[in-house]
Write a structure and sequence with these properties.
The chain is mostly helical. The chain is built from six helices and no strands. It is about 80% helix and about 0% strand.
């Protein structure tokens, strides 16, 4: 688990790795925030509805985007969730959803702070 003083996202590292100017990274982060702010609830709803294919797809997409942003602390719980969904593990899925929710909350707060400071 991420400690309170440890960032979930490595936005500066992502900007360097991807060779992005701040304004381009800001657009990517804004788009990510808009599309994924409710992803945990969306996945949970898909799981409750029995739509495991879509739940797994959402977790997979989040895992990939988190990797692009250098967010290992977000990518790891997304990968755990994807694996639990793929394995059909109800308890594993519930646990992974809670873990992902905690990390997503922190990631969104970090995105908001970065956007406030850099736009």
């Amino acid at each position: 688990m991420t400690s309170p003083d440890q960032s979930v996202l490595d936005l500066e590292g992502a900007a360097r790795r991807l060779a992005l100017p701040p304004e381009v990274l800001a657009g990517i982060l804004s788009d990510f925030r808009q599309k994924y702010a409710n992803v945990v609830a969306d996945i949970s709803g898909r799981v409750e509805a029995g739509d495991m294919d879509e739940a797994g797809r959402l977790a997979h997409n989040l895992k990939g985007l988190a990797g692009t942003l250098g967010a290992v602390s977000l990518q790891t719980p997304a990968a755990r969730l994807e694996a639990a969904i793929d394995a059909g593990s109800e308890s594993g899925t519930e646990t992974a959803l809670r873990e992902l929710g905690r990390h997503m909350t922190r990631a969104l707060a970090e995105i908001d702070a970065w956007l406030e400071a850099n736009t």
